[in-house]
Queue: 3 jobs
Job 1
Amino acid sequence: MNVFRIRPATGHDARVLADMLVEAANWNPVRARSRLTVLDDPAVRHYVVGWQRPGDFGCVAEDAQGVAVGACWARLFPADHPGYGFVAAGVPELTLGVYPQWRAQGAGRALLRELGRTAAARGHARLSLSVERTNFAQRLYLSEGYVIVASRDGSDTMVRTVR
Ligand SMILES: CC(C)(COP(=O)(O)OP(=O)(O)OC[C@H]1O[C@@H](n2cnc3c(N)ncnc32)[C@H](O)[C@@H]1OP(=O)(O)O)[C@@H](O)C(=O)NCCC(=O)NCCS
């Protein structure tokens, strides 16, 4: 049984999102960098800097005590400052992470589904993401209806229609 609940992300969740961004960037422990190094990298940092801007949306999973379990959020990027999973201006790109001690208990899939519902409710037609092909997370995305639309340097850009 899931012992977490999911709520909308707020402006107070910047720290949790930064934690999850570090988890996502460091998914492969062989190539893991320090938290500071990851968050200093402009190509990574722009997924969370200034959270929560207009247009940003997301959700946070919490345990019974209200402690964060993981998060999934999305942000719009302009074509001249794209994210790794950029497909078009107006298509939000998502980031997903679950704290290690909470993995493989359904939180990642639940967060991904909730983000899709939130995106649709906000009037978005699609969500995009970037994932390295060797990250098992890609199987999660495939099983949730995301399709590969571009590939580069071992990473795939994936898109899902949300309504
Ligand atoms: C990817 C991630 C968010 C998944 O979250 P999670 O809560 O562990 O995932 P879930 O429990 O919802 O499981 C989703 C699916 O992945 C599978 N899975 C979970 N852990 C796995 C593992 N270590 N190896 C292979 N498959 C795994 C599950 O079996 C499940 O599939 P199923 O429903 O068919 O059984 C989490 O592992 C994570 O934070 N990883 C590091 C950050 C990251 O890589 N983010 C994505 C960057 S694109």
Job 2
Amino acid sequence: MAGRPGGEPAVLHGLRSLSIVLPARDEAANIAAVVAAGLREIHLRQIPGEVLVVDDGSEDATPRILRALVAGDERVRVLRLPARGYGAAVAAGLAEARFEHIFCTDADQQFDLRELVRLERHCMAHDVVVGFRAMRADPLHRRAYGWAWNQSINTAFGVRLRDVDCAFKLLHRRVVDRLGGPVGWSEGAFVSGELLVRALAAGFSVREVPVSHFPRPAGRASGADPRVIGRAVVDFARFYGTFTTSPRSPPA
Ligand SMILES: Nc1nc2c(ncn2[C@@H]2O[C@H](COP(=O)(O)OP(=O)(O)OP(=O)(O)O)[C@@H](O)[C@H]2O)c(=O)[nH]1
Ligand SMILES: [Mg+2]
């Protein structure tokens, strides 16, 4: 078995076509590298695919860089939306994705897209395969906040997820189709929890696998922004108020 940089084996396990969805806001310093990494994953597998960047509200050079990337490769697509938030961008990307599997990750170089193969190994047996950050590259207070947030979602919805907010998720498109689209989902950061809770409640199987996590090399992080957190809490409460089904947990 030939090795790949990063220690991942070159044996691939069943993706037949792939949409890579990247929400991006003000990622001028990162976006070209992440799009290139996504295209590499598609090329490596020799499958039909696209890299779909969802940019809502970038005020830096991101739109200009994206125009150049689109001009350079027909597999790169950009959805430019009015600024509504991370969740709205993710939902728009899921709705717009064209291919059988959808891989949703961040555009800030905090993940290694070569680790897609770790999710891919399980994509035939599970409808949703999600990463969990085995070693989260964040300061202690961010890890503590993330832990509390994760526990809150687990407790409120009766699930047992290790890392709801890990932005390394592979879905079969039947999940998005069945969950309705995803019209009317949370427009902020709670979308990650909402997606997994809805998928479990609908009976889809969710598998979790460890992935690496890296410090953001450039650009502005928004995960600890009080407005982002406040909005996620409001969306959490709103969803909790309407949610009635008891979801099932992923296998340990
Ligand atoms: N389209 C869009 N993308 C966003 C928005 N907010 C964040 N993003 C993107 O979503 C991804 C995650 O955002 P980050 O700010 O890195 O948040 P995080 O990784 O949860 O938290 P940090 O640890 O603070 O980096 C990045 O690719 C951002 O560019 C938004 O409002 N709209
Ligand atoms: Mg980040």
Job 3
Amino acid sequence: MDTLTITRYDIPVKGVKKKTICHFSDVHLTAYDDLSTPEEREKAIGDTQGWMDTRRFFAEKYGCPTGEAQMADSRLQFSRLLALANTADGAVITGDIMNNVTPADIRATEAGLATLRVPFVAVCGNHEQAKKLPDGLLLSMMKQPISVVDLGDLQLVGVDNSDRIITPTQLAQVEALLAGGKPTVVALHVPMLTPDNYAAVYGCGEYFRMNDFDGCPPENDRFRELVSAAPVVAVLSGHLHFQCVTEIAGGVFQYGVSQGITGNVHLYTIGE
Ligand SMILES: [Fe+2]
Ligand SMILES: [Fe+2]
């Protein structure tokens, strides 16, 4: 696990028994295996090479290392991240596990998730899309517009915002989930734009944010207000491929984890 870049955060929350949550994102699996067709295999090899360049681009842009550990195969990174998650009390995966949702990507993701021995929430990334995902598997959780894992005194709520839209139904479901007052960790793929991350995120282009763009539905902004206050204790996001941790409002932070394909991961100690 010394190959991973682990950042730890303490989130004190009264009334929650201390627990550790592991969060990673953007592994961008480009898998092939014995069941892959020659065409699938060729495309996966090309995309794997492409992601060597893309991950290096993001890492170098943000001053992160690009050594052997960071450039390891995405399937190896996934297994390292899952192994760390198994040392925690719960896991949150904020999308783009798969790059293309090929049959081999699905097999690799499912095999990885099957190794998890802790409760987890996995949300859809823009590289995945709910309609492409099969039913009846562990990864099918990513098809759900809203997913919930109850850890007793803390709940993990996954929100599919992979198309940068919060629907009225999703908003109503989140409102209902928060109305109970249980401390809540919200997981989404595309980060929210906030006053504190404006300088870092706005200039990346609207592809990288879920607020303040032409045609942004009012539900997106209402959602941001809703998760800016108790009982929400943290919002976890991915998609940016760089680390971006900023206050949303009132002491609630959005924790954007950098790309899992180079081994980045967050560990949160939540509770008291
Ligand atoms: Fe990504
Ligand atoms: Fe993404």
